[in-house]
Amino acid sequence: MTRRLPAVPVLALALVTLLSVLVASAPGPASAGPGDPPGAPGIGDPYFPLDGNGGIDVLSYDIHDRYTFGERRLSGWTALRLTATASVSSFDLDLLLPASRVEVDGRRTRFDQDHHELTIAAPLDLGQTVRVVVRYSGLPDVYSYAGESNWLAGRHEVVAMNQPHMAPWWFPSNDHPQDRARVRMSITVPKGKQVIGNGRQVGRTVRRGLATTTWQAAEPMVPYLAFFAAGSYEIARGRDDGRPWLVAVSKSLPTASQSEAMRLMRKTPQLLRWLESVIGDYPFAETGGLTTDLPVGFALENQTRPTYPFMGNGPGAVSTVVHELAHQWYGDSVSVEQWKDIWLNEGFATFFEHYFSETHGGQTAQHWLRSTYDGIGSDDGFWHHEVADPCPDHVDCVSSIFDGFVYQRGGLTLQALRNVIGDDDFFTLLQRWAADREGTTGNTDQLQALAEEISGQDLDGFFDAWLHSPTKPADTVANGLG
User: Fold this and answer.
1) What is residue 34's predicted lDDT score, i.e. its pLDDT?
2) Which domains does the chain have, with CATH numbers?
3) pTM of the predicted model, to two decimals?
4) Is the peptide bond before 295 cis (omega within 30 degrees of 0)?
């Protein structure tokens, strides 16, 4: 994710309060099974305690949503296949839209809904796999969570994209990077609109003025990386080294801007090839990108198909595309274990912006390191945070994890590490981190352990100086600076 504008203010607070009351499909509270505890309402991330849910592992989402532009209403149902990771008397899902009905293995089931938490009164045994169907309907733009009002829509276009949270605005999920699952989505909009999603389009049907478009990704993903966009788009597609790519540009942009944005989007395959030459094999079956006309204020690394605001087609725009494509390895394929590890996403993607410049006739990553270090004094707030724990007080963590110091100091750390262990070991580290942890999560301690294994060096002092201290690192050889 590139740095974004502040979150939109909370909308229609009175309506949110009204709709956040308990909702039940049948009288009576959600009851617990004898002897087993309820599943935890959160997965255990201190930055966002209610993110994700304990006791379940989601295997797949089959999303069926309809979006009505005039009403700004989203209605639909999602079928989840999930497995119990513990014996529980009930379990939770993350959903902001009001639920109207829940079924577990075809049987209507009682539930409670308290704002973001949907508690389903179905006991599960350890290892049991069930099919859960949730029906829901509401106005996504009236809901907020963790200080975010994340729904991005206009009169003619809607794009479901945001981070660290997005799924609860349009489908029920186990919303944390620790739980990735396969995603298939069928989105219904007026037939004059097009729908773009993750992976590849596998179907489109038209009936009574409405079109339902189905997209499916080949590889599992974490919930916030699932996205859809609906509007009017210019679409280009092709194959590069046998890999399908598809890019789209909103037709709501001025004509000249559409052309400029399409030229940028068409660079995606060649930029991806360059990243593969450095990191190793691309981890997904499809690639692409989408430029929206909406004033989103940031770009996001949706798995297989990042989304961008209009950026032109200059060096800065190309750098942003490199950033989001680097996230396909660092952030999408290898996800953070907890949100405090976000520098492992943003620092890596930021480093690749500068390494791309270095290898394409621009400023070197070393010049960036040295000029940034020399240009920002030790009394500047830029240095007064721990990069590996950017929100230690656990307050307003959305702002903290996407603060500029996470991106810049995270990337600077990698260039300094490159100086300490040398190019051969450094690029082996980048390749091993992506390959060894593909489809899983990672944390800072694990990265340090791998760097020490590859280099044969004790890097405690280096990692403490750059990542675990709220002070400017000393200008020494040991810190990659002297």
Assistant:
1) 58
2) 1-150+158-231 (2.60.40.1730), 234-328 (1.10.390.10), 339-467 (1.10.390.10)
3) 0.92
4) no
